[in-house]
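Researcher: Please predict.
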Amino acid sequence: MKRFSLRGLFPGGRLAGALLALGLTLAVGTAGYMVIAGYSFIDALYQTVTTLSTVGFREVEPFGTAEKIFTIVLILFGTGTVLYTLTLMVEQTLEGNIRSRFYHRRMKMQIEELEDHYILCGFGRVGREIAKELRERGARFVIIEQTPAQAEVARAFGYLVVEGDGSQDITLNRAGISRARCLLAASDSDSGNTYITLTAKSMNPHCYIVARVGYPHNEEKLRLAGADRVLSLYSLGGRRMVLSALQPLAADIMDTLATGRHGDLLLAEFEVSEKNGLAGKTCSHLTSHAPNASILGLRHRSGALVVGPKAEDTMHDGDIVIVLAEEQDIAALSNAAGVSI
């Protein structure tokens, strides 16, 4: 059986002890007046409280010698207990407010320092999984959550949180939308995700936006609002279940690739451009810098995706290359591409 403890209600051990001492003092004082003076419970409690608070009201009944001696003892020992308890309560309150202000101020400064980061709108069941994955991958991100209870849960996980409506300019500005690399609209509402996407895209047209959709007929609306990628969790879940049933090994490989790291291997992607000198070069030219690297895919600027490109396939400006390689090979490719992967 779980025992009741004042420590569970009051985090400060000293305050819990002081409250317990105050309660005992009130109980002793009340019991003393009931026994010595013959007061009723209410009269005894009233006399004890007026005595300890030093208010100075008259006695319920004129005191005799025994009552006066008991009152002197109660004042000497009880008043100090009351003052000590009140002092601790004020101290705990002020410390809590100051600690809270410093915490929010520090979080605000950390968010203001973020650049090329991710913004996650919504910390529901889907949002929690997204945040967990982003943290495991070492990505810098900030969460926007409108519900105070959910925002508090996100803070408890140690995430950077902006409390507010993700479709409002002021909230997105607090999350650093102008400096963000990507925004993930993962709220439970399709209309909410549409407004979030529309507002974010208008504030930062270069921000890549991934939006969640619940109903297939809303996909086109999200694309028109500016979403670069629209994902239906129901469709994805259905495809994955069918793949797991028909080709379980293929499903396992996809799950493994999705984790980003596979033992000594890393999954990475980078952009081909004129600046890094890779535009116009073949895939074999890229892998010559890292012979053990495997190019899994090549997405052209037009949006067409080539899975398992051939060595003679040409890379063009704006293409995205997806590579699976060891860390040293990733570093070599990064140096060759002139970018940080």
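Model: Residues 188 and 309 are 38 Å apart (CA to CA).
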